[in-house]
Design brief:
Blueprint lengths: L10 H28 L4 H34 L9 E3 L1 H19 L2 H22 L3 H7 L2 H26 L1 H15 L11 H18 L9 H7 L12 H6 L4 H28 L6 H17 L6 E3 L3 H6 L5 H15 L2 H8 L6 H17 L6 H26 L4 H4 L1 H6 L4 H8 L2 H16 L3 H16 L14 H23 L1 H7 L7
Antiparallel strand pairs: 1-2
Helix pairs in contact: 1-3, 1-14, 1-15, 2-12, 2-14, 3-4, 4-11, 4-12, 6-7, 6-11, 6-16, 6-17, 6-21, 7-8, 7-16, 9-15, 17-20, 17-21, 21-22, 22-23, 23-24
Length: 523
């Protein structure tokens, strides 16, 4: 029996800390930029209230998952357990800003109202997470791993990997060089001087290129001395203050908030469930209910103190574990982000480090998660994994089109679906397939994996679930409601009926079923 006592810190935690810590730093810098430059909230609110509340939430989250990893490692008597990574949910960060906070701030002419609506949005989602935490384990039990990991791979490719990859090549002198530094170490096994973590080397080299280039007249990374100097004005010590009144003020916009809060709460359930499955595939089995309810609780604490962003378990556990991360990296990240947010250091960091030097870390994580979906599932389920990627790509494509049209002061409805289709842009198809993409990925991949295994009864069950979710607007639609995409809902019911018939035929003719298995495989 293995009775190895876990350690709170090991050598590999340095690599994971600098990798995960910079990941969290990128997200904090991004949300700060959204608050300052998109919502135009005053600096005293951002650095005096919102960021301290965000820091508190992230501190509670990372410490809790470090403690959960310690408990698992102690229980199983091994020192290879890696804590689940967690932080601000990146997709939700943009949704709450552009779908909730910015429109309400624009309509009312008051950015504070937008902030309050964001707090209420998180408040609602927190309860969806806490209640859903008791249902998710049953969903996980009946869902093929290819569906869970495939949906996750789609998110990692479309929404984690694409933007960092594009931005790297927009500033390649820093981006590509820093990516090569990480690639050589984390995939190629190269060790840097005295074992300095690759993440720290990449940040240092990227910063040297940016500031060195500025000294000789080149603009790499958008750095400036004036920006660095003005950033020190936000130094100071701020602790989070209760924002109960602001949370409940946002309830005047509850009708708008519910349209996205409930579907994205369900998204969080599925994503967290996928990430727990990913960790289990990597050898660490965490209790799904505890994970989901913890996300809800810490998000609730955060919003009641003024933070309008939801907490989530991150994809990437296999990546941090492969770097050697165990327990300490998560707790250390919590203390780091608390210091950054409570002492106003984030503003200085924004002015000192080129973001493009940090982005390659996100691309690396996306590569690992995409690879895991194929490596940790049966080879025969590879088509299900590929199919799971497609809805996420559709959602990403629609987002790009919407953003481009928005920048031009128009939208798809004004341009016209026929006009877009005439140029080869099937916008309506992207809209339907990409609506509720993570749930679409889960259902389609679940159906496909069950069909491959000739489990037609379970495939029919997934099709029925797809029909119900579609009918109420959780899939293949932009908002919850009745009969949002009725023809798609009916098509899933037709699939379910067909699979049930197949199950009866297979049961009555087992020899034919065996002979037919794999008949369509590529030779």
């Amino acid at each position: 029996m293995n009775t190895t006592r876990p350690k709170l810190w090991c050598t590999g935690d340095w690599n994971a800390f600098f990798g995960f810590g910079t990941n969290i730093l990128v997200n904090v810098l991004t949300l700060t930029a959204l608050l300052r430059y998109v919502l135009k909230l005053p600096d005293e609110l951002i650095f005096g209230r919102i960021l301290p509340a965000t820091g508190l939430m992230l501190f509670l989250s990372t410490l809790y998952y470090a403690w959960l990893a310690w408990k698992l490692a102690t229980k199983e008597g091994r020192d290879t357990v890696c804590a689940l990574p967690s932080g601000i949910s990146v997709p939700h960060m943009f949704v709450v800003v552009f779908v909730i906070m910015m429109p309400i701030a624009g309509t009312t002419g008051d950015p504070i109202k937008g902030w309050e609506a964001g707090l209420t949005w998180v408040f609602v989602q927190s309860f969806v997470l806490m209640i859903g935490g008791f249902v998710a384990p049953y969903i996980k039990k009946i869902t093929p791993r290819a569906a869970l990991l495939g949906a996750l791979a789609g998110v990692s490719i479309a929404f984690i990997s694409m933007r960092p990859a594009l931005e790297m090549y927009m500033d390649p002198v820093i981006g590509v060089v820093c990516f090569a530094i990480l690639l050589a170490s984390w995939f190629g096994g190269v060790r840097y001087w005295r074992g300095i973590p690759a993440g720290l080397v990449a940040i240092a080299v990227g910063s040297l290129i940016a500031w060195g280039g500025l000294a000789i007249g080149f603009d790499f990374g958008g750095m400036s001395l004036s920006g660095l100097g003005s950033s020190f004005a936000n130094f100071g010590f701020s602790i989070p203050l209760p924002a109960f009144g602001h949370v409940f003020s946002g309830f005047e916009f509850i009708a708008v908030i519910l349209v996205t809060a409930i579907p994205f709460g369900i998204y969080d359930l599925v994503e967290a469930m996928d990430n727990v499955e990913s960790a289990e595939a990597g050898g660490d089995r965490f209790p799904t209910t505890r994970v989901l309810t913890a996300d809800g609780v810490v998000s609730l604490v955060g919003c009641l103190m003024g933070n309008p962003f939801i907490n989530a378990v991150y994809i990437g556990h296999p990546g941090w574990k492969a770097m050697g991360g165990r327990i300490g990296y998560s707790a250390a990240t919590g203390f780091m982000v608390l210091a950054l947010c409570w002492f106003g250091i984030v503003a200085v960091m924004m002015a000192l480090i080129p973001v493009v030097a940090i982005l390659p870390i996100l691309l690396y994580i996306g590569m690992l998660i995409g690879a895991q979906a194929f490596q940790e599932t049966p080879k025969s389920h590879a088509p299900a994994v590929v199919l799971a990627l497609v809805p996420q790509v559709a959602a990403w494509g629609k987002l790009q089109i919407d953003s481009a049209l928005g920048a031009a002061g128009t939208n798809a409805a004004e341009v016209g679906m026929d006009a877009l289709a005439g140029t080869g842009v099937l916008y309506h198809g992207l809209e339907v397939l990409g609506g509720g993409a993570i749930l679409v990925s889960l259902i389609l991949a679940g159906i496909t994996a069950c069909v491959i295994d000739r489990n037609f009864v379970r495939a029919a069950g997934f099709a029925i679930a797809g029909s119900g979710l579609t009918f109420f607007g959780f899939m293949h639609g932009e908002a919850i409601g009745l009969a949002r995409s009725p023809t798609v809902a009916i098509s899933y019911l037709v699939l379910a009926a067909g699979f049930y018939v197949y199950s009866r035929v297979s049961a009555s003719k087992p020899e034919a079923a065996v002979a037919g298995a794999g008949a369509g495989a590529v030779q």
